[in-house]
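Tip: read the tokens left to right.
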């Protein structure tokens, strides 16, 4: 499961490097939708809700202590990277930290497993 999440964020990092990358089309549309356009707002909510559910499912499969919180944190990272990519020059902004940030979130949200060196050996 961790490899899947890492691959997702590597893919996003690669997509953001492409000339003309404008981020998530529906996220961008959400900014332009008027408050009274319920049909379009529902399309955006449904899509973003599905992304959220998938990230939460991936976090649960990973064994996160709080999969909902990790999934939501990963979604914030994903959307934030797209928006900061637009604000900063290519290759010179916070979006460059997306992979290490995703790994930090995962590390903080998953139980620590004892390594072979730190496990106590039974007394004989």
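Filled-in amino acids:
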């Amino acid at each position: 499961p961790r490899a899947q999440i890492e691959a997702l964020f590597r893919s996003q990092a690669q997509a953001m490097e492409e000339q003309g990358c404008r981020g998530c089309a529906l996220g961008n549309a959400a900014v332009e939708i008027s408050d009274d356009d319920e049909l379009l707002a529902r399309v955006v909510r449904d899509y973003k809700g599905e992304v959220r559910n998938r990230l939460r499912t991936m976090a649960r499969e990973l064994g996160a202590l709080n999969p909902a919180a990790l999934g939501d944190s990963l979604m914030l990272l994903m959307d934030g990277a797209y928006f900061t990519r637009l604000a900063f020059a290519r290759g010179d902004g916070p979006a460059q930290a997306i992979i290490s940030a995703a790994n930090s979130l995962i590390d903080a949200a998953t139980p620590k497993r004892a390594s072979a060196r730190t496990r106590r050996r039974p007394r004989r």
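Helices lie at 2-17, 25-32, 38-62, 67-87, 98-109. Residues 114-122 have pLDDT under 50 and may be disordered.
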